[in-house]
Design goal:
The protein is built from 5 helices and 6 strands; from the N terminus they run E-H-E-H-E-H-E-E-E-H-H. It is an alpha/beta fold. It has one domain: Maf protein (Alpha-Beta Complex), CATH 3.90.950.10.
């Protein structure tokens, strides 16, 4: 069994990814390797931020690992909030972040957007990237209480409800993260 560190402390994310990659790999969290460090995310793209996480773990611990970065890109805001999605309003308060998005969009007709995830995988002395994206629309007011982040204002294409109105299973079946993780899992299963 090959050990692979996921640059996260989110146990739910770890379990979800473990189920997808199968039992050929044993996933560990940052907590499992006793990494208490605040890993930098100073890139200007999701790929750069994801790679910073894997580079950090490889350089400090010499371990096979993967990290991800995700966010919301809104066309009318020139791709904002993008890599700043978690702290768009200058804080990590998602209510304030959503308020700022809605304020900036105002009555703008073009409300197309996408959620995007990029995973950086370092394994067998190779760096690989896997991307997932889901297109959708930003609505004018919050709907739903499930999920997190911008889920209450994002309706994926082909649906008439927001991510925050979907069950976790419904959302995970189509989400940007699950698309990227599926691509990585497929790669790992074929090793």
């Amino acid at each position: 069994m090959i050990e692979l560190v996921f640059a996260t402390n989110n146990a739910h994310k770890l379990e979800e990814v473990q189920a997808m990659v199968g039992d050929k790999f044993c996933l560990k969290s940052l907590h499992d390797i006793d990494c208490q460090d605040d890993i930098p995310e100073t890139g200007i793209t999701f790929q750069e931020n994801a790679q910073q996480k894997t580079d950090y773990l490889v350089n400090k611990y010499g371990l096979y690992c993967f990290g991800d970065d995700s966010g919301l890109e809104i066309d009318a805001l020139n791709g904002e909030p993008g890599v700043y999605s978690a702290r768009y309003s200058g804080t990590r308060d998602m209510e304030q972040n959503i308020d700022l998005v809605l304020e900036k969009l105002g009555d703008t007709a073009n409300r197309t957007a996408r959620f995007k995830t990029v995973i950086s995988l370092y394994l067998n002395e190779k760096q690989l990237f896997f991307e997932g994206a889901i297109e959708g629309t930003i609505i004018k007011e919050r709907k739903g209480v499930k999920g997190f982040g911008y889920d209450p204002i994002f309706i994926p294409n082909g649906y008439d409800i927001t991510f925050a109105e979907m069950s976790p299973e419904e959302k995970n079946a189509i989400s940007h993260r699950s698309i990227a993780v599926s691509k990585m899992a497929e790669y790992l299963k074929n090793l």
